[in-house]
Structure formats: structure tokens, C-alpha cells
Amino acid sequence: MPLSTEEKIQDWLRFVQRLGQTDRPQDVAHAVIHEGIRAIGADGGFMSLLSPSRTELTFAGSYAYAPEAVAFLKSVPLTAQFPFVIAFTRREALFLESLEQARQDYPDLVPHIQNFHGSVVDLPLVVGDEALGVLVLSFAQARSFTAYERVFLRVLAAQCAQALQRSGALHQERRAREQAEALQEQFAFLAAATQTLTTSLDLQATLDALTRLAVPRLADWCAVFLPRGTQLVPVAVAHEDPARVPLVRQFTDHYPVVIEASGGLGEVYRSGTPQLVPAVTEELLRAAGADEAYLRSVRALQIHSMLHVPLTAHGRTAGVLSLATSDATRTFSEADLAVVQDVARRAALAVENAHLYATLQDELTERRRAQQAVTDLNAQLERRVEERTQALAVANANLEAFTYTASHDLRTPVRHVRSFADLLQRRLGDADPRALQLLQQIQEAASRMDELTQGLLDLARVTSMDLDFRPVDLGPLMQKVIEGQAPDIGPRQVQWMVGALPVVQGDERLIRQVFENLVGNAVKYTRDRAEARIEVQAEQTSTEVVVKVADNGVGFDPRWAGKLFGVFQRLNPADGFEGTGVGLATVQRIMHRHGGRVWADGVPGGGATFCVAFPRTPVTADPAP
């Protein structure tokens, strides 16, 4: 009989409608196996689904097969040469109209189909590009499948796959929602517990409120045990049925908790390790040596599951928080343990704080007196710091004024010395070589003195001048700086490698001075290189724009890099390379005023790299430090 008769199509449509109302993957699989296969018109079949490890197909169930016939399907690796595995991996349906041919093509399958005759269809359960499993249909009589039937069966398999995927998504969504609700409930409880435990320093009131809060949200009954002598006694007890609270106290009075006893609350208190008893059974109690009277008392309390957690704070255990359930459907788990441990830590702090409260009352007056003394001392120190700060500011201002004035006033006599030396040189002519040599030394010393005073003037101006912050395009600026180096380069060749440079915020005059110093140093210290190479590159981070000036010059020892930016600090001999030792100090001062920084790295004989970093966040003009 054709598979796609109107009656079978109607049966399948009714089945698909019921399948659409199923929201758990296991229920979908059960329905397909026990209802869908029969609705299609097959004589038997089974379903296997992809395992979580995605390396094998796991048996989900069968229809009309004996258990021993499908035992080998429990777990089948994806490398197995079975037709249903191949259909799964290829995402293609296999129609085995002749099992004789199947025995020849799939010899590994032969031992499992010795007593089977007819035809088999292996239908991969595919949604999009994802294969979820495979549905296998068997027919007792050998048959040929028309093109229409083949399409019909593929459509049915696709509907089953979509139902599996949809139910899986719904199941995951429901689980996620349940977990979120449980987590929200835990957070709400922890928030309420925290408020309860921090509201009062009265120990008894706090613990009573805690046990009432835990019941019934966490347990059917809750008790807090604190040490008293050699025993642990319940100082606070709450039960879902308040009439049962006396039973708990009678139980602990008759069976006191001895701290040194093995097992139970005593061991939890001594070891600081929680104890989870998922199910309190008579077998468990008898194994612990419980007698009939003890068993009757436990039965009266109707304890099903128990959880004991130490109240530990700052490495000291103050007591034990004990919870129990009476309902067999309410069993403590590791998840409950994590929540209760969190509550216990907070409760332990509350217990410790309550114990300390009484002691602190006696010390309160002394603490207030000490606090007042500290307050007076702080006020005195603040006044002294303010006075020192003002004095330092005045000293810095005086020093800067002195530096500016001294360097400015020194330039006039130095220029006079150089001018008179020039006049004297012209007057003497070539008459006295020794005098000319001495005059040349005077001129060189005067020139160096003029450079030093100019450097000090520049440094003083950088410190005190008002800044005009605006966007500065470093590309054109760097081109002007490089063109300005032509007189110092002379006839020698310099290979320039200048990358794309960004726009920064700052004072254009001072930024140009920074790069004139750095590029000028690179030109100077590559003087003895046959092929000088100077590279200027920029990179941007999330907070800074960094510009690097690198050369292949004489370099320096990186151990002394910190000295480079001090006034009059030089790492190379003055007779080899001219300079005042003020330029890099000026660079550092300019960068600090821009909210940036400067650093350097070098290798002796292997070149140097100087880096300046501008903040990406726009800044406004800052007063001089």
C-alpha cells in the first residue's frame, strides 16, 4: 500500500499537531517512536540522537523491536559503517529496498539483521545545516519507494527534526527561566538576610530573625547552635509549624550536642566543614548506632534532609547553622549548600559583631578621646603641609624667576665678551698665532655660554608661559621641522621614513619645539653614520597618541635612560657631540604641561628611540606646574 494515502496523511497531520504541543525533547522523541512510526505506516523503527560529545549516536527508543535486537544501538560511533550512521553524516536519506544488497554494501550490519527481511529507510533529522539524529523505518515486506513517497518521508523527517529543535529550545528557555527565577529568589533572600543581620547588634534578636527568615524559604526548620561549655545549644529555633518548636528543644535537651563527639554538629563545629545529608533514613541512623528511642524522636521531628554549616568568620567558628526539611520532595543539594554557606558567613559576622559590641562599649570613650587626638593631629599636619606647599610654591617661583633673570642677564656680558673677542681678532690679524688661538677659545666658550643661557631661558619660558591649546596637525608640522634641519645635515645623506601623523591637542609653538629637539638630536647623533636613517611613526591606543622618533645613531646605555631628561644631563661626551643638556629637559617639561609623557630607549652603537605620548582626551590650557 502506498505510504502517502490520504488516510495516512491525515493521521500524520493529527500527529504533527500533537507534536507541536510537546515542549520537551524526550517527549518529542517518545511520541515519534511510539506514535509517529505507526502513523507513517511502518512496521517498526527506532530513533538515535547525536550525543552531547558529538562523536556518537545515542539510542533514543524503538517501536516493535525486541530489546535484544536493538542492544547494539545504545551507543554507535559516527565512524561506524552502518547505513543509518552514513545517512546521518551525509545528511542524505538512504532507501534500502533490498536487504540482500544492504548485506553486501554494509557487512558490519550483517550480524544485526540476520532475522530481518523487507526494506529499510534511514532518514537524517536535519534542520538547516545541523543534523540532530536519525529516524529508521523498517517494512516487513520488500518494497520500492516512489519518488513521491521519498519526498513524503523526507518531509516527515524534517517535521520531526523541527519539533526536536523547537522543543529543545523551549526546554532550554524554560530551564534558563527557572534558573533565573531561582537565582533571583536567592538574591532576594540574601539581601533580606543581610538586612536582618545588620539591623541590630542584639545577638538574640538577630538570630531569631534569621531563623524565621530561613523558614520556609530555605527549609522547614532552622536552628542556630552556639557553644556553651562542652556543648552546642540551640539559641534560636524556627519551624514552619510553630507548635513543633518545643519538639526540637526537647530533642536537643534529651540528646545534647557534645562538641567533642564524632560526627554530626560537633564535627562540623570543630572542623569548620559543612555537612550535607540529602536523605535521613533509618538505615543511615542505625548505621550510626541510633537506638529505638532516638529513632522515635527523629520520626516525631519528621526530618527528611539536613544541612549543617559552620558559622565561620575571620578563621574562627562561632557556631553552627542547621537546616532540615520534612517533605520528601524537598531535598538539599550542593546548590543549596552554596547559598546557606553565604548566609552562614554573614551570620557569623553578625555573631562576632554582637560579641564585640559589649567590649566596644567599654572602649568607646577611649576611642573617642583617641579620635579627637588624631583629628587634632591631622589638622596640625594639614596646616604644616599647606605651609610647606606654599613655601615650596614660592621657592619654585623664585627659582624660576632667578633662572630666567640670571640667564637673561648673563647673555649681555657674554655677547660683549664674544663681540670684543671678534674685534680683538680683527685688530691682531695674523700677527700673533698664540693670541689668535686663545681668542678662538674665548669665542667658543662665549658661544657655549650663550647656548646654555638660551637653553635656560627656553626652559623658564616653557614653565611659565600661557598655553594656547588647539588642534595641531603633526604632518605639516613635522615636514617644517625636517626642512629646518637642512643646515645641520649639509651634504650628507639622510634616509627619512615618516609615516602618517595624526592631529593632537596642544600649543603648536611648544609642540614644534618638542620635535625640533628630538629630530635635531637624531640628526646630530647619526652624524658619523655612512647612511643615516631617521624614522618618525605614530600609533594610537585607547587613551594616548604616541609619536616615535627613531634613529640608527650612536645610541645610549638604557640603564641610564632616566638621566636623559634632567637639566645638564648628557650620556655622550661633550667633545664628540655639541649640546647644552637642556633640550630634553625642555621636552619633558612641555609634555608634562600637555598632560602627556616622554621616554626613551637605546642600544649603545645601535640607535635610539624617543617617544612622546599625547592624551587622546582633549585638554585645556593648564597653568605651569
TrEMBL record:
Keyword Kinase included in the entry's annotation: yes
Molecular function GO terms recorded: kinase activity
Domain of life (superkingdom): Bacteria
Name recorded for this polypeptide: histidine kinase
Domain Histidine kinase: 405-618
Keywords from the UniProt entry: Coiled coil, Kinase, Phosphoprotein, Transferase
E.C. number(s) listed in UniProt: 2.7.13.3
Coiled-coil boundaries: 166-193, 360-398
PANTHER family, alphabetized: BACTERIOPHYTOCHROME, TWO-COMPONENT HISTIDINE KINASE
Pfam families attached to this UniProt entry: GAF, GAF_2, HATPase_c, HisKA
Gene3D superfamilies hit by this protein: 1.10.287.130, 3.30.450.40, Histidine kinase-like ATPase, C-terminal domain
Catalytic activity, as annotated: ATP + protein L-histidine = ADP + protein N-phospho-L-histidine
